[in-house]
Amino acid sequence: MAWTTPATWAVAEVATAAKLNTHLRDNLNALRWAGAYKTADQTLANDATVNDDTHLLIAVGTSETWLFEANVMWTAAAGGFRFTWTGPAGATGSYSALTHGTTGHAAGAALAAETTSTDTDESVQMRGVIVTAGTSGNLRLRWAQNTSDAATLTVKDLSWVRALRL
Predict the structure, then answer these.
(1) What are phi and psi of 61, to 5 degrees?
(2) CATH 2.60.120 segments of the chain
(3) Which of 10, 28, 105, 159 has the most crowded Cβ, counting Cβ within 10 A?
(4) C-alpha span between 91 and 134 (Å, rounded)
(5) Kind and range of the H or E element at 30?
(6) What pTM, to 2 d.p., does this model score?
C-alpha cells in the first residue's frame, strides 16, 4: 500500500469513509514492516543456477527505498548454498550476509551479486537496502546449490524476510 500525502482538513468538512481510509488507514498500513516467511521447505538438486524463492519476496513500488533483513536456514548433503537478491528493473542496492558456519561474512554485495557458502547445515542473516527506479516489482531472494550435485539442497520453512519502506 502506497503512502498518500495526508489531506488538510477544512472546518466542518465531512470525514467520509473513503477519505479516512485513504489518509488514515492506508497511511498507517504503509508505515508497517512488510514481511514474508516460508510455509514449507523448498528443495532442488542438480542446479547451480539461482532460481526465484517461492515465498521470500516483498512487493516494492516505483521510486522507493527499502531496508530489508532476512534469516534463511538450509540443509545440503553436498554442494553448498548460493544466493542473491534481485529487484525490479533499474533497482540498485546492496546487502551483507553473515553465515553461522565456517564461511564468515560477505559485505557490500550488490543486488544480483551472488554470495556462496560451502557449509551443509546452516543459517545466514542478511541486511540490505534496495532503491527502486521507475518500475515496481518484487525484492526477491534467489538461490541454488553452490556446486551442482545430485543431493538435495533444502531451504527450510520458517525462513523469513521483512522490509521497511523509508
Answers:
(1) -95, -175
(2) 35-165
(3) 159
(4) 9
(5) helix 26-30
(6) 0.79
Cα-Cα-Cα-Cα torsion 100, 72, 81, 138, nearest 10 degrees, comes to: -140
Q: For cell 534463511, what's the residue?
A: 72
Which residue is listed with cell 538450509?
A: 74
Q: How far is Cα of residue 156 from the mean position of the Cα atoms in its chain?
A: 16
State which amino acid sits at residue 122. E
The DSSP bridge partners found for residue 57 are 140
Q: Which of 158, 69, 74, 149 is nearest to 119 (CA)?
A: 74
Q: Is the pLDDT confidence value at 152 over 70? A: yes
Give the span between the Cα atoms of 155 and 122, in whole angstroms.
10
Q: Is the dihedral of CA 22, 23, 25, 30 positive or negative?
A: positive
* Fold classification of 35-165 (topology level): Jelly Rolls (2.60.120)
